[in-house]
Amino acid sequence: MTAKNALDVNELSFAYGSKKALDEVSFAVNAGECTMLLGPNGAGKSTLFALITRLYDSRQGSIKLCGFDIRKNSRKALAQLGVVFQQTTLDPDLTVMQNLRYHTALHGIGRKQANRRIQEELERFEMYDRRREKVRQLNGGHKRRVEIARALLHEPKLLLLDEPTVGLDVPSRQGIVEHVHELVKETDLAVLWATHLIDEIYPEDQLIILHKGRVMAKSNVDQLLKKTGASIHDVFSKLTRGQA
Ligand SMILES: Nc1ncnc2c1ncn2[C@@H]1O[C@H](COP(=O)(O)OP(=O)(O)OP(=O)(O)O)[C@@H](O)[C@H]1O
Q: What is the mean pLDDT of residues 216-220?
């Protein structure tokens, strides 16, 4: 672990009653990298995200964001974080702009800076021209772009994406996958992206395979493929046999 890590998860365990959902999970996410968290249904991805965002709490293991422990220094730790949950949290009856202004106000960002940041992020996701439309009028892919833009307004160091392309058609999914990978290349942002879709993973990504609450593999994708001589699909199937 180094000061460079946007996220450090160390020996983290969590159980729902007697049901173990995470079992001594350890990994790091670096600045300027997209780390794909690949796991079948029930692997523990959402539980991990709930712990990183402090919806749940665990006394077994630790989570640090940019070096700040989320239990001991939660305000500073959570300030480093942008999140897009599986379920949309935009207000459909407000415009794109109103939704984003609400977020900047929550983060105490002044009007002038808020307008600048909103323009920057909406332009990045090719949504600035749609800013006066009600969210209800946008298609699923465009709503997701607005949600990702919103999660970036306060300039977090780590962006968490919990299966952000679920329910989208192929072109919308591809658009989001490309936009996020471009974003990581252009900035020093660290991304942790939960998915069960292998085609969302790029060769330059970092990959963590989670299965039944345990980390089965963690590696740069390109290196993993060279080392095993297999496809991601084959590696994933082998490690999660009978569950994928
Ligand atoms: N509230 C809960 N109460 C009891 N068990 C739960 C609860 N939430 C999740 N679990 C169990 O914990 C394990 C991990 O679930 P989790 O939702 O974190 O997995 P996931 O990888 O996000 O799956 P999915 O892709 O289906 O969202 C599963 O076995 C699940 O059944």
A: 91
Per-residue pLDDT, averaged over 52-66, amounts to 94
Mutation test of ligand 1: which of 13, 23, 46 has the most ligand atoms closer than 8 Å to its C-beta? 46
Ligand 1, residues at Cβ distance < 6 Å: 16, 19, 21, 39, 41-47, 196
The domain segmentation of the chain, as residue ranges, is 1-80+202-244
The pTM (predicted TM-score) of the whole model is 0.92
Domain covering 1-80+202-244 assigned CATH 3.40.50.300 in the classification = yes
C-alpha 26, offset from chain centre? 17
Q: Which of 241, 170, 183, 187 is nearest to 209 (CA)?
A: 241
What's the CA gap between 21 and 43, in Å, rounded?
Answer: 8
